Amino acid sequence: MLYVPGDKPRAIEKARTLAADAVILDLEDAVAPEHKVEARANVRAALLAGGWRVPVLVRVNGLGTQWEHEDREMALLSGASGLVLPKVEDARAAQELSLGRALWAMIETPRGVLNAPAIAAVPGVAGLLVGANDLARALRTRPYPHSQTQRLPLLHALSAVVLAARAHGKVPLDAVFNDVRDPAGFARECEQGRVLGFAGKTVIHPDQIAPANAAYGVTHEQAQQARALLDAWAEGRAAGKSVVTFEGALVEQMHADEAQEILNLWAANQDSVIDSSDR
C-alpha cells in the first residue's frame, strides 16, 4: 500500500500509474495543519474523478482532532474504498467507525498493541497497519546497532500485531521504511516482515513498490514447486493415502493448503502484472 500526501496533486495523479496493490491518500501525518483543508479538497477531487485501478483508501485525521468529522464525511461520500484510522487504541473506536466501508486500523501506540486482538476482532476491520515511528517513540526504544536486527526492540510488538490479525482472519501490513535512499535496508526490512508473517508492506515512495512486490510476492520457481507438491498430493490422495512423500519430505493436508495459497498469490500477482502493463 502506497501512502500519498493529500496536498500533493501531482503525486496523487502519478499514483494512478504505479503498480501498488492499493493507494492510501493521506490527510494525517504527511500534511501540515495549514494544508489540511486543501488536502481534503484534493483527495475529494481525486476520488470523484475515478479511473483508479486499485482500491483507494483515505487516512483520515485521528479521533479528537478538529478535522476528523469532515475527513470521514468526505471519504465516505466521495467513494473511498476504505478508511485508514490512525492510533487506534481500543475496539470501541473501531466499532463506532464501522460505517459500511473497510476500516484499516493503525496500531502505533502501546495501548494499541495490547488491545490489537480486540481491535482485529471487530467485523468492520479489514486489517491492521503498524505505525512503527510513533510506536518506537512511545516505547522509548533506540535503534539497534546491527543492520540485520535493527528493529529488535520492536519485534515483540510487531509479532503481536501479526498474531492478532491472523487470529481473526485480518490482513497485517508492516510499517513504512523511512530512508528512501537505502534500498538495501528496505529489502532487509521487507524480508524480516515476511518472516514475521506480515502480508505486505506500506511504502512512502514509488521506488519502494517493486522491491516490496518482489519480497512479498511469489517467484516462478516457488509457484512451480507448489504446483508439483499439489500434483503429488492429489496422486497420493487418489491412491487412498493420508500422507504422501514429496522430494523426501512428508506432506500432509496443511502443506497442500499452503501450496494452494502460494498458487493463489501467484495468480493474483500475474493479474496485477497484466493490469499494470499498459500504465
UniProtKB/TrEMBL annotation:
List GO BP terms, alphabetically.
oxaloacetate metabolic process
One MF term in GO for this entry? Answer: magnesium ion binding
Kindly give the InterPro entries that the UniProt entry links to this protein. Answer: Aldolase/citrate-lyase_domain (IPR005000), Citrate_lyase_beta/mcl1/mcl2 (IPR011206), Pyrv/PenolPyrv_kinase-like_dom (IPR015813), Pyrv_kinase-like_dom_sf (IPR040442)
Residues at which Mg(2+) binds? E108, D134
Instruction: Tell me which PANTHER family the record gives.
Output: CITRATE LYASE SUBUNIT BETA (PTHR32308:SF10), LYASE BETA SUBUNIT, PUTATIVE (AFU_ORTHOLOGUE AFUA_4G13030)-RELATED (PTHR32308)
Q: Which UniProt keywords apply?
A: Lyase, Magnesium, Metal-binding
Residue ranges constituting the HpcH/HpaI aldolase/citrate lyase domain according to the UniProt record: 1-206
Residues the entry annotates as binding substrate? R59, E108
Pfam families under this entry? HpcH_HpaI
The molecule here is called L-malyl-CoA/beta-methylmalyl-CoA lyase
Please give the superkingdom of this protein's source.
Bacteria
What cofactors does this protein use?
Mg(2+)
